[in-house]
From TrEMBL:
Protein name: DUF3422 domain-containing protein
InterPro entries attached to this UniProt entry: DUF3422
Pfam families attached to this UniProt entry: DUF3422
Amino acid sequence: MVEDQPVPVCSASLLPPDDPQRIALHNEVHARPAARIRLPALVTLVAVLNDGVSREDERAHLCHLPGQQALSLAELQDNFLRLRLDGYTVKWERHTEFTRYSIVQPLPAGAGLGNSMPALLDHLVTPPGWLGQIPGRTVAAIQLVMLSADLAAGPVLMEQAKQWLRRRTVVGSQLGSSQAWAITDLQLNADGFERMLVLAPPGTSEAAAGRIAMRLLEVETYRLMALRGLPVAKSLAPVLFAAEAELADLTAQLETSSVSEQDLLDRLIGLAARVERATAAHSFRFSATQAYADLVSQRIEELRELSLPSTQTLGAFMRRRLAPAMATVASTAQRLTSLSERIARTSALLRTRVDIATEGQNQQLLAKLTHGQELQLRLQSTVEGLSIAAISYYVVSLLLYGAKALKGLGLPVQPELAAGALVPVVLWGVWRTTRRIHEKLHAGH
């Protein structure tokens, strides 16, 4: 049987039409309610990475549970589903990167205090092999046993808890107003599970037990998801060292002119491409790590831990062991960002160097053009002088022919004398005409 989901309520006629996402956003606050757990109980959690795993794959796997053959894909669209089966419940939760399966069942006989590492998997109520066939890759597997106990017998109870975990060193806390004890060793056992033990005072409500279980299981799941960024950060360390050294070398070579700008530009482009590729490939992982780490801190704060005698609290353990890993991831992300910014500044310096070199080349070219224009003006002046002489020669020749014609008509004209006398006038006239043409051309520009 599927647990009842929040019923969508249609807007009254007095309201404007609903935004398409209104109901989904409103019901998000109820999306993952805590289970109600009756003590004593065994909670088995398996979280798997769901990359490449579709909802249909997960629906098909849930259909292998007794009586769930008719389970539809529509029932998995809200990323949360609780199935009530015969004497136990199975909760399915799909997140961005992982999916959690939680099984809540009565505590098997012989699994309580006074035993040492009881065989819990032998009493799992799901069909044989069902856990191992969950689609995905396991990222967290936890067995949480919740018992009622008289917490007044503190030292004796702690010894029994250590015997139950078969550990001499454990971490544990008293949890806020519920006063329940949470004790664990945070170790992977031979069966692939880690174990947690909750000892709650008599009278603890089912709702309170459910909230305690949810917070403890979320702390451990989010811790493991946060740590997924650590191997990435470690693998990037040598890459970042090499990139920073190469960038320092490129920056040093900018101070000399022994290396061409093209060679520097080619190396800088290659370095920038490698850094940007690493940023694009791992920025999500680093952001997700920070988000998961924040969730761990938030869930630990919600536990409102109090210290147990001679036992380190869960929060103190996490701060001591998880904080360095998160600092490494944050430092790597910051180095990537800083390296990208430094490459951008080096690119700006190289661009300035190229601009200065280009400016120098432009000045040399301009000087050559200016010198060429001066030569052209001189040549033009020489040509103009020859042109004036040539035009004047043709004009004088025409005047000479005219004077000879007049002499042939019987007029008293000496052609040679007349032409010679008119030479200065012709030269002046041609020169003056040329000047007027120049003045008109310059006035037009």
